[in-house]
Amino acid sequence: MNTHKVDRRQRIGDVAEIMLDYVEHKTTYQAQSTARVRTASYTDPDQWKAEMELIFRRVPLMLGFTAEMPDPGDYKAMEAMGLPVLISRDKHGKVRAFLNVCSHRGAPVASEGRGNCARFTCKYHGWTFAQDGKLIGLSESATFGDVDKAGLALRALPCEERGGMIFVCLTPNAPMDLDHYFQGFLEDFEAVDFANWAYLGTRVIEGANWKIAFDGYLEGYHFASLHPATIEPRTPSNRTFYEGFGPSMRIGFPQHRIAEALKSIPRDQWGDQENNGFDFVRILFPNVSAFLAPEITQVAQLFPGPTPDRNRTVLHYLRREPIRDDADRESVEAMMNFFRDVTYQEDYVIGMEIQKGLESGAHDHLTFGRNERGNQYFHEWLNWYLQDDPTLPEPVM
To answer: Ranges for the Rieske domain (predicted)?
Structure first.
């Protein structure tokens, strides 16, 4: 038997027991102390540029799902941090990523969106590229002149598919070590067979500075005041458990009914009860928040910009079973709209008000409580990357 899977189940069971205690004794995870973050961290254009260069262009970013492009020839063209990116699954099933830029005159070789094709053809002059990025054809080549086709391939980006997700580093030739970066966290996604879930679609919302928006995914202290009718009926406010996996996190949220849900289940099976009495939000640093639920899963992908005070968030929706029929599709679309509306109207609208508040200069610092350890940890890692010195000790939960 895979000892990692046993360890994972045992760990989730232990976390469930801790969260049961939180609900029964009205307590939560506590950091050693409160922590302060400069308000300029959310408004300073220089810090924003440094975040783009030292974090978003260097770390593995989750840019796609196996379920989005499961078949040979499938591709996804998108913009990430202002860069045109093309992800392609070749005829052997291997996923690759490129800058979506023709080597002739710089036009895109695929239009934004998803599709399936045997080759990519630049719409400007008709140059064609294979699924592996190699240049395979020049239009009117007899009149063009001699070129080194091998040296005119699409510019590749480091890319790896793991746990049902596709990770890309936006800097060509950069090192990418997912095992070191995620510290065993991807096993969580492998354990639930995430690669074989059905992809349902996306919704897009826009909001304030990416960190203002992201901070909202990292704590449950605001549930009673901000989500009294949507989240709080299921999940009590300010009852949260945190685990760190490198800079990423698994955040445990007990449900009000955790004692009732677990009382008839043997203790050694609590590790299999996710969504029955407790839930997790999985945070992939720097910009992904995933809530895996059986009815519908929402994975939020936050893209900073185009200016420091803005972010664009793509909300992806998946579930275990594919769409059954038209009626099922209709109910799924309604559910996606509901989740989008709650996220936007309840979280992102106040985020834009916070942006104005921080830009007013009213306070020099924000304070994160001992009960907001996830936010503290996120900002500790953010600062670790911004110092650009790998010899410094890494933050620990």
So the answer is: 62-168
* CB count in 10 Å sphere of residue 338: 12
C-alpha span between 332 and 139 (Å, rounded): 45
pTM metric for this prediction: 0.96
- Check: CB of residue 166 under 8 Å from CB of residue 66: yes
Tokens of 218: 């990292």
Q: Which of 248, 240, 209, 204 is nearest to 222 (CA)?
A: 240
pLDDT in tens, 202-226: 999 999 999 999 999 999 999 999 9
Sheet of 156-157, strand order: 113-116, 74-80, 83-89, 95-99, 156-157
Using CB atoms within 10 Å of the CB of residue 263, give its burial: 0 to 12 exposed, 13 to 18 middle, 19+ buried: exposed
Can you say whether the dihedral through the CA atoms of 168, 169, 173, 177 is positive or negative? negative
Contact (CB, 8 A) for 273 and 185:
no
